[in-house]
Amino acid sequence: MQAAYDNTFPALKHSSVDQTAGGGAASAKVQGRDISIESTDLLRGSKTLEIRHNGSLYLLRTTKLNKLILTK
To answer: How far apart are CA 3 and CA 25, in angstroms?
Structure first.
């Protein structure tokens, strides 16, 4: 049997993040500063990540030179 996969981002569990905001992690608010998330936490070993934003689908990918590119 396979272990359950934790689909949360460690940075969003930080004590400075307001966990009571409606909508969960997507609408989390940080007290007085922006949220910082490592790209490795987002990509989780993959070269690409699909991001849905305001009804549109974006693709975040890592290049051969280890740069990030976000395309619609």
So the answer is: 22
Beta strands in 1-72 (DSSP E): 17-18, 29-30, 48-53, 56-62, 68-71
At 5 the pLDDT is 47
Angstrom distance (rounded) from CA 27 to CA 21: 6
Q: Are residues 42 and 71 in the same domain?
A: yes
Provide the whole-model pTM: 0.54
Enumerate residue ranges in the chain where pLDDT < 70. Answer: 1-30
How many domains does the chain divide into? Answer: 2
pLDDT of residue 38: 94
Host domain of residue 22: 1-37
Residues 45 and 28 in one domain: no
Cα dihedral 19/23/29/35 (nearest 10): 100
